[in-house]
Every structure is written in C-alpha cells, then in structure tokens.
Specification:
Layout: H1 27-43, H2 45-67, E1 73-74, H3 80-83, E2 86-90, H4 94-103, E3 109-111, E4 115-119, H5 127-142
Antiparallel strand pairs: 1-2, 2-4, 3-4
C-alpha cells in the first residue's frame, strides 16, 4: 500500500516493488516461500537429503585430506545422519581465516572461539563449489 498506516477504505498500491509489501506476513516473503516449496517438491525430499549427505561426506573427506594435516580438525559429527547439511571445522585463527575466505568469495560462518561452519545447501551448492571452497580454505590455512 502507498501508506500502510493510513487505513484508507480502498487499497492504493505503492509504486514499484513496494506494492508487494502489504499484509501480515509480508507478501514478498510468501512469494519466496512459494518458490522454495515448488523447488523442494520438484527435487524431492529424498533426493535433497541424499545430496546433503553426499555433499557433507565429500567435505569431511576433504577436511581429513587437506585441513587436518595443516592442524585443523573436524568439529562436526563424522556420521552424516548426525551432522545435517553443514560441516564445522576447528582451526587456530578461525576469525581471520573466515574473513579471508569471505574476501576470496567463500562465505562461511565464524563461531567463537575457533570454529568455521560451512553451510552446504543441497539445492544451491554444487560439488564443484564445495570442492573450490575447501581448496580456498586449505590455501588460506596453509599460507
């Protein structure tokens, strides 16, 4: 609405994208939810779960092969069924490492005091992206 607090008798849409900002909850959020539900329905829950497990298994293998020799360690459960769609790595200087990763285009989550969490959404993260992200992390830790 043009002025959501005016309580006009008739709806007067705002110009541009603001016209979607009406109601509770906001319409824009519902549009995004609708698209997300469609994606999940099209891909299928079982396929999404299988990819999440395979993606995180690959990342755990790369942590073991590339990061453990550099002094990092796996902080997530080793069993795929217990870790969900993310992998957490413990490393010294984690904040600086996470900042350097972000500057390199790989955006992790930093958790005090020494954890870097890698979110691996199976619908939007490819195996190549996960591999590349871990390679960036490896190169930063090794430097």
């Amino acid at each position: 609405a043009r002025d959501v607090f005016a309580m006009a008798p008739a709806y007067e849409p705002a110009d541009g994208i603001r016209r979607m900002l009406s109601g509770t909850p906001q319409v824009t959020g519902l549009v995004a939810v609708d698209e997300g539900v469609k994606l999940v329905a099209e891909a299928g829950i079982d396929a999404i779960h299988a990819k999440a497990m395979a993606l995180t298994d690959m990342v755990v293998d790369l942590v073991d092969a590339w990061l453990v020799p550099l002094g990092a360690s796996l902080a997530s459960p080793r069993q795929a069924a217990r870790r969900g769609g993310h992998v957490t790595v413990r490393c010294s200087d984690a904040r600086a490492t996470a900042d350097r990763m972000t500057a390199a285009g790989v955006v992790p989550d930093f958790r005090n005091p020494d954890l870097i969490r890698l979110g691996l959404s199976p619908l939007t993260t490819s195996y190549t992206e996960a591999w590349t992200g871990l390679a960036v992390m490896r190169d930063i830790i090794a430097a």
